[in-house]
C-alpha cells in the first residue's frame, strides 16, 4: 500500500514537470516566431507573395546549418524557422524527459518503449528520408 | 496520361495564381492568414475539430496556396495547440502517459511514412482524401457519444503494458480498463498515416481507436490523444522541414493565429454549450469538404 502511494506522488510530480516543460517550450518558441515575424514583415512587407507552386528550394531555410547562418544576419525568416524548430523539439524533449522519469520509477519496459519512439524521431531527423 | 494531368494542373495553378496573387503583398497575406488562422483555432477548439482541418481549405481554396505549403504550416499549428493544451491536462492527472507512449510507437512510424509519401501523390488526390476525412470528422462531431468504458481487466496485453489506470472524478478516483490493444494500435497506425499525409492531428480517427476500439473513458481518451498529437506531428514535421514544406511566411501567421484562437476558445469552452454550434459547423465543414473534393477531382488544387 505504501509503495502505491509513493508511486502516485512520484507520478504527480512528473506530470507537473511535464506540463511545465510543454508550456515553457510553446511560449519560448512562439515568442521567437513572433520576434522573427516582426523583423520579417519589417523588411518584406511590400514584396509580393508567391505560394502557388510548391518549390522545395525556395524558403532556403530547410536545414539547421542554413538557419544558423541566417540567425547571424538577423534574418527574419531564419528567426521564424528557428522558432518552429524549437517548437518541433518541445514534444521531442517531452519524450526524453518521460524516458528519464520511467527510469527513476524503474519501469524498464516503458524506458524501452520511450527509446523506440525517440529513435524513430531521431532517425527522421537525420535527413535520410527526404529524396 | 499522368504527365498530361500535371501539365493541366500547372496551367490552372499559374492562371488562378495570376488573378489572386497579382496584387497581394506579404503584409496583406500575413494579416489575412493571421485572422483566418485565429478563427480556425477558435472554432476548432470549441467544436473539438482542431485548427488544421479548417486552415488548410482556407489557404488552398481561399488564397490559392499550394497544398504542400498549407500542410507544412498546419502541422506546426498542430504541435503548438496540442502541446499548449497538453500542458494543462497533464497537470490535472487525467492523461494516461503510458497509453500515450505505447501508441506513439504506432503513430510516429506511420506519421513519417505519411509525410514521406505525400509529395509523391498528385495534389488533387490529397485534396480528395482531405475532403473525405473532413466529411468523416463532421459526422463524428455531431454523433452522440456513448461511453463504453468499464473496469474489466481481463485483457492480457493491457495488463502486460500497464495500460489500465485511474482518473480523478468529482466522486474520487475511478478505475478503468483498456480493451483490444492490438485493434487500437492498428487504428492508431492509420490515424498517423493520415496525420502525416495531410498535416492534421486526425483527432477523429484517434477517437475511434481510443473510445470505440480500446473503450477508454472520454476524459482520458481526449486528453491522451491530445498528448500524443504533439509527438506524432513533430515526427512528420521533421520530414516536411527537411523538404522545405515549412515556409516561414505561412507558418508564422498560421501558428500564431491558431494558437491564440485555440487558447481563447478553450477558455470560453468551459462555460458554453456547444451542441448547436457543432451542428452549424458540421454543415460548414461538409461544404468545405465538397469543395475540396470537387477541386481535387477537377485538378484545380
TrEMBL record, chain A:
Pfam families: DUF1634
InterPro entries given in the database record: DUF1634 (IPR012861)
Tagged with keyword Membrane: yes
Keyword terms, alphabetized: Membrane, Transmembrane, Transmembrane helix
Membrane-spanning parts: 21-42, 78-97, 109-126
Name recorded for this polypeptide: Uncharacterized membrane protein
Source organism of the structure: Pedobacter nyackensis
TrEMBL record, chain B:
The UniProt record lists the keyword Transmembrane helix: yes
Keyword Cell membrane annotated: yes
Membrane topology recorded in Swiss-Prot or TrEMBL: Multi-pass membrane protein
Pfam families recorded: TauE
Entry's transmembrane regions: 20-39, 46-63, 69-90, 102-119, 125-142, 182-205, 226-243, 249-270, 277-294
Keyword terms: Cell membrane, Membrane, Transmembrane, Transmembrane helix, Transport
A single GO cellular-component term on record: plasma membrane
Origin: domain of life: Bacteria
Annotated family: Belongs to the 4-toluene sulfonate uptake permease (TSUP) (TC 2.A.102) family.
Name of this chain's protein: Probable membrane transporter protein
Organism placement in taxonomy: Bacteria, Pseudomonadati, Bacteroidota, Sphingobacteriia, Sphingobacteriales
Amino acid at each position: 500500500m505504501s509503495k502505491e502511494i509513493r508511486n502516485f506522488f512520484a507520478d504527480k510530480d512528473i506530470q507537473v514537470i511535464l506540463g511545465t516543460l510543454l508550456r515553457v517550450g510553446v511560449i519560448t518558441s512562439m515568442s521567437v516566431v513572433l520576434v522573427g515575424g516582426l523583423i520579417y514583415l519589417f523588411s518584406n512587407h511590400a514584396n509580393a507573395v508567391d505560394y502557388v507552386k510548391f518549390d522545395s528550394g525556395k524558403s532556403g531555410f530547410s536545414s539547421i546549418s542554413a538557419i544558423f547562418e541566417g540567425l547571424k544576419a538577423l534574418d527574419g525568416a531564419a528567426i521564424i524557422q528557428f522558432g518552429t524548430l524549437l517548437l518541433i523539439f518541445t514534444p521531442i524533449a517531452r519524450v526524453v524527459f518521460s524516458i528519464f522519469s520511467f527510469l527513476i520509477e524503474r519501469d524498464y519496459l516503458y524506458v524501452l518503449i520511450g527509446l523506440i519512439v525517440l529513435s524513430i524521431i531521431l532517425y527522421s531527423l537525420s535527413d535520410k528520408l527526404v529524396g | 496520361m499522368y504527365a498530361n494531368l500535371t501539365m493541366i494542373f500547372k496551367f490552372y495553378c499559374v492562371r488562378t495564381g495570376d488573378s489572386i496573387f497579382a496584387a497581394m503583398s506579404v503584409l496583406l497575406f500575413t494579416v489575412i492568414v493571421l485572422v483566418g488562422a485565429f478563427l480556425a483555432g477558435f472554432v476548432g477548439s470549441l467544436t473539438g475539430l482542431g485548427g488544421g482541418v479548417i486552415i488548410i481549405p482556407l489557404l488552398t481554396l481561399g488564397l490559392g496556396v499550394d497544398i504542400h505549403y498549407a500542410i507544412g504550416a498546419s502541422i506546426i499549428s498542430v504541435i503548438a495547440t496540442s502541446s499548449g493544451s497538453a500542458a494543462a491536462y497533464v497537470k490535472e492527472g487525467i492523461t494516461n502517459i503510458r497509453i500515450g507512449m505505447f501508441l506513439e510507437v504506432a503513430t510516429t512510424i506511420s506519421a513519417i511514412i505519411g509525410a514521406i509519401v505525400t509529395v509523391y501523390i498528385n495534389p488533387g488526390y490529397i485534396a480528395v482524401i482531405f475532403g473525405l476525412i473532413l466529411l468523416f470528422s463532421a459526422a463524428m462531431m455531431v454523433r452522440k457519444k456513448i461511453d463504453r468504458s468499464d473496469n474489466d481487466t481481463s485483457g492480457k496485453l493491457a495488463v502486460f503494458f500497464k495500460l489500465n489506470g485511474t482518473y480523478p472524478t468529482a466522486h474520487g478516483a475511478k478505475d478503468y480498463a483498456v480493451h483490444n490493444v492490438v485493434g487500437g494500435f492498428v487504428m492508431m497506425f492509420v490515424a498517423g498515416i493520415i496525420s502525416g499525409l495531410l498535416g492534421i492531428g486526425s483527432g477523429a480517427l484517434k477517437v475511434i481507436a481510443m473510445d470505440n476500439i480500446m473503450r477508454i473513458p472520454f476524459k482520458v481518451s481526449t486528453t491522451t490523444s491530445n498528448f500524443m498529437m504533439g509527438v506524432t506531428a513533430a515526427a512528420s514535421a521533421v520530414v516536411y522541414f527537411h523538404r522545405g514544406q515549412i515556409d516561414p511566411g505561412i507558418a508564422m501567421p498560421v501558428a500564431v493565429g491558431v494558437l491564440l484562437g485555440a487558447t481563447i476558445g478553450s477558455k470560453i469552452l468551459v462555460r458554453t454549450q456547444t451542441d448547436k454550434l457543432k451542428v452549424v459547423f458540421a454543415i460548414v465543414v461538409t461544404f468545405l469538404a465538397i469543395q475540396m473534393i470537387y477541386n481535387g477531382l477537377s485538378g484545380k488544387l
